[in-house]
């Protein structure tokens, strides 16, 4: 077996054989296939696709490249949620303790933000003392004690994906449905969860810009999960405008705590409850009542325990940025559009995100919204507040928010928009 024959086969539009897939993933993980060869193969896959059988084998080979976690000794059913990434997507923060408060165990291995999308670990690290890295037995301990753990995946979990994702990131080969589906699902299956709910985002702030692509990604991932015995469902959700009223690390923690306290923006509450119901159903707890757990304080109680179990102080004041700048509504009327991608890039430029993996993030940086599409706004009144420690960044953020990013129509109405678009 050799890499060149495999690259040529995919370049010329042929399906790869199971033996070719197993060999190339294993050889790449061991360093016997070079980065430039894998980059060529990833580009050939991006251009020519893979059929369902190839995707299934590719995913299985990536799972087999590392260790699998096992939570079968826990007395509770396990269920996880994965979002394909968006702007202001802080849902994991209220959702994990909420589902734990309703009786399931939530092992949530999460990532960091890259580019315009935020990462759950960056958000939680704005809480003083909180640790994302846990040793293997610590993950189970926190899960046992609090019912939920949100932490970084260990080095041994799907190492083929770890290597390949970093390579795709720098070779223009991220946007391939077979590669995204196998990347996400290999990690989730290796994580050992019994059930999984996928939040597949669609819109300007998401990887998938069209509903057709989002549907195909969702269906591919659901099939992979079910093939591996993981009860999997997907919700297709809107990412044309940011979720909630904040995009940025500590800003989003603050908003999540508001939701856990029974308040918070309507779209964040709606999506948190919709995902919680799916997770509880998939975990075999269809009679649990997540709305009640939000209202009676039990979800907040779990949150505090979960943060404290990972070294965090749930009562510590959250960091705030040193400088603020407001952006006023350009006209009076109805806000008909506030573009998720533009807000996400603005938050990134302000310091909430990173350009390279090793860059630090500013905990207090980000964008705060004072109106959502559909709201009436008045010319000259604040529409957004930009937060950063480094005011020289305001100019770059403001440049992202020009053009068509903010749309106000004097007589217009925002198109009716629901947060959850479909269930797959
Ligand atoms: N998230 C992942 O884990 N992998 C991808 O390929 C894209 C998003």
TrEMBL record:
Domain Pyrimidine nucleoside phosphorylase C-terminal: residue ranges: 334-407
One GO-annotated biological process of the protein: pyrimidine nucleobase metabolic process
This protein's UniProt keywords: Glycosyltransferase, Transferase
Coiled coil region boundaries: none
Signal peptide residue numbers: none
A Pfam family per the record: Glycos_transf_3
EC nos: 2.4.2.4
Record flagged with keyword Lyase: no
GO function term, MF aspect, one: 1,4-alpha-oligoglucan phosphorylase activity
Keyword hit for Glycosyltransferase: yes
InterPro entries: Glycosyl_Trfase_fam3, Glycosyl_Trfase_fam3_N_dom, Glycosyl_Trfase_fam3_N_dom_sf, Nuc_phospho_transferase, PYNP-like_C_sf, PYNP_C, Pyrmidine_PPas_bac/euk, Pyrmidine_PPase_CS
UniProt enzyme class: transferase
A single GO cellular-component term on record: cytosol
Family named by the database record: Belongs to the thymidine/pyrimidine-nucleoside phosphorylase family.
UniProt subunit comment: Homodimer.
Name assigned to this protein: Thymidine phosphorylase
